[in-house]
Amino acid sequence: MIGRSGTSAKRASARWREVAVAAVTGVLVVLAVALTPGVLGGSGGGGETVVQATVTNPLPCTNTGAREGVRVEVDGQRRDATLSACGHNEGEQFAVALPADVGSGPLEVRIAPSTPVDNALLRPIALGLLALSCLAGGLYAWVLLRGPRRRPVLI
Rounded to whole angstroms, how far apart are CA atoms 70 and 139? Predict the structure, then answer.
C-alpha cells in the first residue's frame, strides 16, 4: 500500500537503481573478462612450441631456485637451455615448451603441460559460469538490500 506521501514509490525507485548498479557492474565484469586475452583458458601467451629436452646438468632439490641445464633442438640446431626444476637424472628426456621468440641469447624453457588443452569449449563454459556467479551475487545483494519482510498474520 502506498502511503500518502509517496515514500514507497521513492523507495522502490531507489531500490531499482541499486539493482541496476549491480546489474551493470556484473555486465562490465563479464565484458572485461571476455575481452581480456589469456583469461578463462584463452591463449594469452600462445605461440609456444613443444620439443623434447635432455637433461645435461641435473641438480638436487636441496638447492633453492635450482635451474637445471637441458639440451633442446631448435630449427635443426642443438642448444643449451635452463629449466627451473630439480631432481631429474642426467640423460632423462621430457617435453618442454619453447617460447615463441627463441632468439640467439640464453634460452629458458618450461615443462610442457602433460595434455594439450582444447580451448574451444573451455572459454564459453567459463564465461557462462562467470556470468552465473555475477547474477547470483547480484541477487544476493538485492535480497540484502530488500531487508526483512513482514510475516503474514494468520489470525
Answer: 53
